[in-house]
Amino acid sequence: MFRIWRVLLLVLSLAILSYARSSTGSSVLVVLDPSLSKDNYSIFFKGLEEQGYELTFRAPKDVAPAIIQDGIASFAHVILFTPETKTYAKDITPQSLVDLLSQNTNVILALGSKQTPLTSLASEFSLILPPPGTPLISHFPERDTPATVIPIPVSSSSPALTSGLAPVWYSGIPFALGNNPLLVPFLNAPAESFAADTTEDSGADALVDAAEKGGEGLWAGKDMSVVTGFQTVDGGRVLFVGGVELFNDEFAKKEVTKGVRSGNAQFAREMAAWTFQESLVLRIDDSAHHKVNETEPRDKYTTNDRIVYTTHISKYNPATNAWEPFSGLTDVQLEFTMLDPHIRTALPPVPSKPGEYSVTFRVPDRHGVFKFVVDYKRKGWTHLHSSTTVPVVPPRHDEYPRFLSAAWPYYVGAISTSAGFVLFSVLWLAGDDRDQRKKKGVKAE
Amino acid sequence: MRSLSYCLSLLLAAAAQASSLSIQNGRVTVSSSDATQLSSEQLSLDPGSLPSLSLGPTDTLKLTFQVVEKDGGKGVQPHQTFLRFEADGEEGVQPVRVTSGGKAKFELDGPKVDLGVVLRRPNHMFRDWRFQDILNNMARPPVSLPPTSTSPVKVSLLLGSYKHSPASLDLFTVSVPASVPAPADPFAPLPEITHTFRPEQKVPPKFISAVFSAIVLAPWVVLLGLWSTLRYSVPHLFSPHVIPFVSSLAAFEGLLLWYWIDLKLGQVLLYGALLGMVTLLTGKQALGAAGDWRVGKKQS
Asked: Are A204 and B9 an interchain contact pair (Cβ–Cβ within 8 Å)?
């Protein structure tokens, strides 16, 4: 009996431990094209369910459950595995997907080589897609798969991905990236690969024509991306994947080299973790300021004061489903701005206190309404923004130094006048010249 | 099904073993604008001794070669014949037209205008990415020369085919004038800004202040000196009528000094009012006493 309880307790604690999920919620809507079978993606979906996500499946043309109900997102995350779907139910439109993102809902989008509403949505996010029907092709390295099934080594330095991941099997389209800084490329195409619609060597001339002036361009080289994230200004994350096969079981089980399984399963899980705001999620807990040698904040500061600015930053830990103090950021900057930053300085972590970042600086000798601004934007990480307004005033009339050496003559003059007055009063009151006057009077008489 | 895929893989493997691609008669020449040949190199494909060239702004680079099967030397037209330009981690890809006999010719004009701008990013000038979003529909992917700096551009040839095994050949390196650098990451840490404070107020030497203070005090010497020639007696100096008044006057002076150093106006008014009442009483007494002395009443 006792033993059973023990086992139950263990199972329960394990369940709680493994019940780790995203920082924004655990409900996931999977819109799955009827041509794709749920069972072909079982490794990816099972992995999500084991993590604690509640998956709801629906076909693109189903009416319920709607992704947005009465203007409010019904799910915390949406997966759109509909690379070839051209028509959707009324509730799924590019505009509604953008609405979702602005409500901090996260979306995974699988694109295909056909022209669909999703491909036109992708170009709104600064992805430059190749013409329809041109998948990514690579003749390198020599292998027994078709030229469109390519092993891609994971070379991204993003902290969202564990280093040393095995190459990932990929089949789909590449896309060029615009200059949008909110894009987070995760997986780039190999340097030897290119997009082409020809399946014969005789198609070589078409490639040259495409690259020439007037052609549609050539999507080739390592600057092309195949998996790219986008983090909106509000924090919602969307992941564009050029081919849905990246997630399927066949690629996850396929060997890259003899005896080495592909990195697909782990790559897909880590990509989902980033998109669903499990990894690289930060927040500012609080920020405070005070004068050096004081502890309480002032409602205003005087020019040339030395002040301390402190902030606490937490990182979401999906393993414990909790926010934990995080001291790992080394490039946070603090700006002290009045219209323009007057001071921009590093805000380093305090070594002994986890999650605390602090800096001491001297207030500029300009008075006005200043702001402490922490604006931390790094690719892939949640954007942090904190702004505290504080007035800076010139010294009050009684806060200037009282005794300047340059003014000694004035002090001496004032004090000697006072002393002279007291001396005069003493002489006038206590003095008595009656005897002398009497003598004078006697003489006169 | 399984046997079919097995056959296919066997076929593929057989094709792979059959022949791999290479080039022969490779030659690269650089000629100036008046068609004089500046340099000409035979491409050896030996990775140890790659020819290095230099391309001026008005020069033309000409590359000719023939794609052949490695064994047999028969000219073929592969699916992929790409020149890859690489410098400092940036790359550009340029496909080369190959005839069915495998002959290929490629010309590159020197960077008269900034190649990095013109060739690599068609809409590079529109740094503002929102504007670029609008342009995306007509946007093309980047091609050709990467943005270059001082380090030379490595040129390699990528040969890929459905029938032959692929080959990646290093051809030569070429130095070109530096172009506009690739756009920097807008989210990188920004440069530090420090505030330039007004310089500390200049104070004259203390010695000079002391001298002038001494000058201010000088009249006292004159006053005391002249006073010593007078024979002026102060018989009532310690009279109980005079001392309280004089000390309250002195207290007033002290209060003003205190005000200057520390006190606020309200405190001064309060203390001043209290002191004023005391001074009024003591003053009345002192002046009364003084009047009595003057008219000769003997009191003390």
From this structure: no
